[in-house]
Every structure is written in C-alpha cells, then in structure tokens.
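anyone else get weird line breaks when pasting these?? whatever heres mine. first is seq + tokens for prot A
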Amino acid sequence: MLKALLKKQIIEISSFFISGKDGKRRKPMAILGIAVLMVYVLGASGALFWLLSGALCEMFVATSLDWAYFALFGAMSTGFGVIGGVFMAKSKLYEAKDNEMLMAMPIPSWAILFTRIIGVYAVTFLFEALVFVPAFIHYFVIVGFSVKVLALGLMVIFVMPLGAVAICSLLGFLVALLTAKLPYKNLWTIVFFLLFFGAYFLLYSNMETFIEYLLSNGEAVGKTMQTALYPFGQLGKAVTGEWLSVLLFLLIFVGLFAVVYTVISLTYFRIATMKTGERRPKYKEKKAKGSPVTFSLFKKEFWRLIKSPAYLLNASMGTLIMLIVFVMALVQGDLFGMTSEMMDAIPALGRALPLLVAAICCFLGGSNFVSATSVSLEGDSIWLLQSMPVEEKKIFHAKIALHFVVTEIPAMFCLVEFSILLKLSVWYALLAAVTMTVFIMLCACMGLAINLKMPNLHWTNETAAVKQSMSSLVAMLGAWGVVLLPIGLYFAFGKYLPAWGYMLLWLGVFALATAAILVWLYKRGARIFANLK
C-alpha cells in the first residue's frame, strides 16, 4: 500500500510535465522547453546566493571560521526552505481533495501522512539547495577540494531539509488546527500568511545592513552560532569534519523531524476530517434580484478568488507586492532609492524616466497570473459552465475582468505615487497610465489564452492548479519578458525616438496584440473551452 501511495505522489509531482487536457505526456520538445525554463529560473536564483557566498567565504576562511560560514548558510537555507514550504504543508497535508477518500480506505493515516510529507520535503529541499549548494561549491573554489568535506556536505544537504519540513509541518498543523476551530477559516489563513510574509519582507528589506554586519563581525556571528543558533553551529562543524558534531547534528535534525511527525500522525486523521468553524448561512426569504450575465459570472470569479487562500495569495501576489511597495515608497519618500534630482543628474535615465515608471508598474503587475489559472480551477466541474446557456466570450470576459480589476487598481495607485515622487509631467503620467492599463489587459487576455492551451483540470488540491501549473509560470515569465523587451530596445535604439514616441509605439503594439488574442479567444479559444474535460 505504501508503494502505491508513493507512486501516486510521484505522479502528482510529475504532473507538471503532463498535459491537462487528455492526461497524455507532452511532446518531447515541450518537455525540453519546460526543463530549460526551469533550469534558467533555478540558475538565476542560485546565482544570487553564489554572489553572496563569494562576498562572505573569504572573510570567514581567513579568520579560521569555516564552520561558521557553513552554519550561517545552513540557517539561511533552512529559513528559505520554511518560507517555500510552510503554506504548502498546510494545503498538502490537510486540505488535499482526496484526503477523505483515502482515509475511508483501509490505509493507516501514518502512511498517508508520510507520502504527503515527501512532497513537502521535495519543495523544501529545492529551496534549501538554491542557497546552500552555491555556498558549498564556493568553499571549494576558495579553499580547495576535500573528499571528507564533500561527503559530509552531501549528507548535510539531504538531512538538513528535515528540520525545515518539521517546522513547516508543525506550523501547518497549528494553522490547520486553529482555522478548523475558528470561524472564517479562509480569512484567518490569509491573515497568518500576511503576517509571515510581512516579517519576511522586513528581513529582506534590511538585507544590505545584515550583509555589512556579517562582513565586519565574523567572530560575533560565530559566537551566535554556538549559542543562540546552536543546531546550525553543529551543522557547520559537521561539514568541516568534527565527528561529535556530526552525531549531534543528526540527533537534532532527525530527532526534531521524528518528534513532530509522531505528534502530527497521532492527530492527523482527526484534524484532516474535522468540521470547520465556518458559520452556517441562515435562510432568509427575499425576492431574488436579477443581474446581467457577465456581472453574475464576475461575482462568481471574484468570490472564488476571495474564498481560496491558495488562489488569492499566489495568483495575485503582485497585488500584495504593489501594496507593500506603495507603503514603502510613501514612507521613504523615494522609489527604490531613485529621486527626481538623481534623474536630472543622469541625462540618460532622465530621458527614460517615463518609460521606467511605466515599466516598474507593469513588471509588478505582471507578477499576477489570475486569468492564467482561472480555467484550471474549474476542475472536474467545468461541465457546469459548459452546460450553461451562456456564450463562451461572456465567461472569458468575467475571467479577464477579474484579473484586470485585481491588478489595475493597485498598479494605478503605484503609478500615481511614483509620478509624484519623481516629478513626472502630467502628459507623461497620463501616457504611462494608458500604456500600463493596455499592458495589464494584454496580460489578462494572454494568461487566459495560455491556460486554455495548458489547463490542469485533474488536480487533488487547488495549490497544484495554481502553483504547479505550467500556464501560470509561462504567463508570469511571458509578462516579464514583454516588459523587459521594450526597456532593452530603448537603451539600444532610444536615441532615434523621444520617450513619448517610443511609449506610443509600444502602446500600439500592446493594443494590437490584445486585439489579436481577443479574436483568437472568441473563435479558437471558445471551441477549446467547449471541448475541455
């Protein structure tokens, strides 16, 4: 039975490479394209930590604090793993759509829990490897190769995620327990996420100060690792070959995972099947009010977004980031350190200022992929929409409108604020606003078209349809590419056109592309939607 559950888990993880339309594996070139894209994204993320480790490794090695170097990056990678897996743990362990079906079978709850935790381990391992592996390789570049350090480092890389998995599972357990008891379950889930994300964003915003402190206080960092962060101190010493520390490291990380797993397994069945504290709606007799079809469909899409934490917090992450950037720019009085005086001092940047303001807002808005998951989230019940006496284009309008509203409002607030801070003229601010608005409409239409071509209707949890969807990744990266292309071309050929002329040119391109995608949606896209199953 455990073997069958493990096979099911592997199929779920590998579903990223499987077409959602007919369940058949994608064509080899499509799989190759996905693999290249993933390697690029992972490589870009790992490059950041490669640069950071390069700045710190020589300093720690020069002061004979090799173990503190590994301890520091062990702590950082564990934190990164927790951030990557904490909310997946809750949805994966306690909110999977097939939980009740599996628990109705003669399958021990510990076996179901164990196979689900493997999925959480895979995610945390990936996030931690992005941090620790570049630092590990950089150590060999600075110090030289060592077979003992290599063997012990590989052991640490595979065991270390157990600590993050234990923390993620424990936090997921606590959040599931609290939200099951409290009313308005989804609201509390969103509040917990916002608090967690706010703390992470605060830490990230102070990263430069943190790095400067590390560079000038290596010995103090070593003392902290030996006391307040004792487990990671033992991790660092384990990598450098202290055998007692190897045993202590294994005891701490494996032991923590074993304790948390035991606690969760004892209550897993009860919490996973617990009735939530949502209030039951009271029946009130009243006359029904009619409303236009498109507005009714929009309300349906809107309430699905609001009531699904996985959908809201992932597909509209760009909205959350824009709100945070808006507040930070308001408090600091500048835009990422840029001021109008700086723009005046650098003529090239000053000429490109309207384009940069529009590009920043478009880039942040392009982080949303609401429409790119809206079809997949219909899931097995997509037949309900297909059987309604409603034209497909009205269904598309509702999905596009939701993406547009969720993105356009915060983006417009940011653009107005940035224009004021950088003293942009009214004409350029209006032109940037129109360009940004057309771009957001382009992203909404493009995301829907991509999701129609790459749907995932056979998911066991909404998180899989949102976070593990090929359409969401392609839509987000595609939107970023559409933003970066004009910027790159402007610095190469902008001398031939003034900024307003260049923006008008791309405004026309965005408008034509949007119109072309809408025509495709109304014709080919409508037929694809009608035949999805």
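and prot B, same format (seq, then tokens)
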Amino acid sequence: MRYLNWVMARLAGRRAGRAVIVVALVLVLPSLFSGFFIDEYVQAARWRAAHEHPGMAGIGKFLNECFLFAGGDQAALQREMEHGMVAWWQAPDWKIHFWRPLSAGTHALDLLLWPRNAPLMHAHTLFWFLGLLCALYALYRRFLTSRVACLALALYAWDDARGQVLSWIAKRNVLISGVFGICTIIAYDKWRRDGWRPGAWLAPLMLAAGLLSAEMGLATTGFLFAYALCLDKGPLWRRIVRLVPHLIVVAVWQAVYAAGGYGAKATVAYVHPLAEPVAYVMQLLEIAPIVSLGQLTPIMSDFWGIYPPALKVTMFLLAAAALVVVGRVAWPRFTDKPLARFWLIGAGLSLLPIATAGPMDCNLVFLGFGVAPALAMVFANALDKPPSLRWPRFVVATLAVCNLAIAPLLLPAKCLTMLGMGFGLPLTDTSIPRDAAVARKTLVAVWVISEGGLYASWNHRYAEGIPGPGKMRVLATSFSNVSVTRLDELTLRLRPEHGFYDSTFQQLMRSLSEPFHKGDVVKLSNMTAAVTEITVDGRPLTVDFRFSAPLESPEWLWMRGEGFRLIAWTPPKTGETVVVKAGF
C-alpha cells in the first residue's frame, strides 16, 4: 500500500498525464528493434504481387489482400499446395482472409516509403500508440477525477500486455481500431451528456472506421451498450433505440464482409461465432479467465496454446480463483457506482470478439480500456477508505505491485516479443540454398517444428526476387519424435509418436473440426501422401509418402529441422527405420 501511495502522490500534478505518456513511450522504445515476423513477409509479397496491376487497380488489390493468408478457394489452395506454400494436410476450405482496408493503407504507406526498414515501420506503429494514449486520456478525464484518470492511464500505458501488439507490425490494426473506438465513445458521450449534436452522427462514423481497421472494433459496441445500460438517461428502451445507428453500421459491415467472402475457416487460430456457435461458446468459456489473468498479471495468455493438459487445468483454476478473489474485494465497492459498472461491463463484453481469435496479449487492447479505470477506482477507493481486513489489503497491494511495479519493468522486454518469436525465421531462410540451381529442385523437409519458417522464407524470397526451391514439401510437424521407415525406393512411412500436428500451435492450416480418415490420399505432381492410421481426434498417425522418382534422385533436396535451421538429411536404406528427433 505504501508503494501505491507513492505512485498516487506523483500522479497529482497538472502535467501528470503528459508524464505518464512520455514514460510509456520511453518504456516501449525497444519495439523499434523487434524486426519482422511472418505476416510482414506476407504483406511484402502481396505488395509485389499488387504491382503487377497498374495504378489504382494494384492499390485496390493490395488493400483487399494485405491480410490474405488463405482464400478458402479449393483450386487456389491446391495450386499453393503444389508449389509448397501450404502443407499437404491443409484443409480444402482453409481460409484466413481479413478485410481491414484502413489498416492496410498504413502498411501500403510503409511499403511505399521504407519497404525494408523495420524500425521505421515500428515507429509508425508507435505513432498510433501515442494517438491511442492521448485519446484514452481524454476519455478518462471525461469520467474520472484528474488523479484517478492519470492512474488509469498509467495502468493502461505501462501494462506489459501492450508489449506484444507494439512489437508486431501487422497487429497495428488493433491499435488503429482502438483509436477509432475511443473516439466513438467520446463522441457518443459528448452527444448524450453535453448535447453536442455532431456526436450523434460522428460516433457511428468512427465506429465504421474502427471496423474497417480491424474486426476487434466490434468491442466498441460492448462499451456503447454498457453506456446505455449504466450511464445514459431515460427509459431503457429509449437508451437502446439510440444505439440503432451503430447497430446498422455493424449490420452493413457484416453484410459486406460476408458478401466479400472474408473471414476464417478450418483453422484453430480463429473461430467464427455464427458458423461455429458451439465451438465459439466453448472457447469463450475457456479463454475468458485466461485473458483476464493476462490483463491483471504479468502472465502472458499466449502460452495457453502450448500448455500440456495438466498445466492447462492448473492455469485455468488459478485464473478462475484469481478472478473470484479480485471480484470479492472490488465488487462490494462498486455496487453503488454506475461508472464502475460501465467500465466492467464494457470490458466483459469486449471478451466476445477476443474469443474468436483465442488468447493473445496483442488482443487485449480493448479489454484494457475498461479494466484500467476500474482498477484505478479500486486503488483510489482503497487509499481513501483502507480495507479493515488484512486479506483485502493484501489483494489490493498485490494488484498494485503486479500492475504498477512488475508490469512496467516487463514492458520493454515484451516489446521484443516478436523479435524472439521471429528469431528463427532468418535462420531458416539462410539455411536453404540460394543458388540458381535450387530452383530446379524440390525441397523435402522430413520434419520441422513449424511450417511457418518455410512459409516466411518463400514470401521473403518472392518479395525480394531471391532464388528459392522450385517446390517445397513439408512431411511432418510434431512436438514428438518421428519414426521414418523406407518401404521401397520411392516410399517413406512416417509415424510421429503422438501423430501429425499434435499441438494447437501446429494446427493453423487444419483444425480438429476437419478430421482425416483412414485411407485418405493427397495427390501432388511429384508426391502422394496416403493416410494409413489416424489418432482418436482425427489426425494422421501414420502416413506413407510415395515420390515420383527414387529418393536418391538429384531432384530432391532432403533436409530436416534442427533448432531454427534446416540441415541436410539422408533417407534410410530400403527396409531401415530411423528416428528423427523433434525439438530444439
């Protein structure tokens, strides 16, 4: 509690808000050195492809395809599989294609002015972060006292959960959408409380801009609904009617989105609430405590996808228990405060769009809008009226240490998150030959931890005009060792201990909702994959790969993953079995 008193004392000055923003910008400067991740290589490839079309047609193509990773068209996916851009197990209707034209415009600016300069692209992201903080401070000052508004801004701006979104250039869209979301709430509040008539049409306009920046802009409607429920005046039905223009904006946006064929399908990375309602509800119930824990504590929610089952149960119970404890301390102090309920309900409803994408700290931008001021009100209340019992004081003190001491210390490191995650991508690329002769070969990777490195390499080489393999074949990704048996001069049998793509981390191209069946065959021009055994959850367990030429033929470039690199690998002799060790 002493530390909380010390922080609050320094947030009482006239320029405290500016100081909070300046400190935040200093803390996030390491993001300038976070480099590129897979998505940025894809966008560079899309930019080059768009230049094949003259003038506005090329720009329009890029704005439409900037966030295209898979179009869901079976013929197009077959062509990409044939080339090796996607793995042989990808679902025939696999789709990840988002419509974010306003955000795409900012990436077009990057690729036009500084196409190979990652620090300048990150600086562009920090510009949007600065705009978000300024808008957020203006929002908080409309509702909170100066001291509490500064504390809320500090809790948001210094939160380590901001690190990942700032280190990932392609995730800038969430920040842009957040800026427009805050402006929507401010305009709506100025209309309702101040009688500022332009707010009646400006709020829906800002909401539309947020939706055209990122799907996460839907979270703005949660705060608008919370406003109508907790802060607006008049009969409830009339308060809801005032939201109709915003609902029309959402309906029109969704209609255009659906008509354009945008969205995601057959991937573990995204769940569509309308197409897969049961799976969406289950995911919402599963991750709501996890992302809330990620917002309140330094524990990253991203690790959820790679936790083993026992650890998942432990973390879920820990998150649920933490929320119950915090709720018991905070809620009695909020029952008579409509403003506190507004922040909490808005934050809670923001979990609905977050649940479509799964637990990732970069998706907590909108959740933080409501959690930060609610937490600031808890802290201010605890200082003005200290709890009489020891355990509530301990909970408040723990939250203060986590969010005002540990979080700012971790924020600079988390601003390098994508540098760590993307560290292996250049290593993968440099380990693949670049001579002109490689274009006549098919790279066969018998095992890699993830196909992402090869995917990034292909896009990078295409964007830069660097020679690469004519085709690529990834035989297996798995966290377990892989048994490789040569059946004859043309055929290899692979059997990972726990089956192919045995983690959600490796199920980007095919979710468990689209299982394989024994006897399924995938045919490519120079390779056939025949599934001979499957796991209980519908993943291939044993697959026979038959190639069009003897395995010793010079047309094959045999490699396997070792850490982040690829190294040369030699197929076994006929009748022999070798084990490819998985892991780093």
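btw re prot B: The longest strand covers residues 527-534. The radius of gyration is 26 Å.
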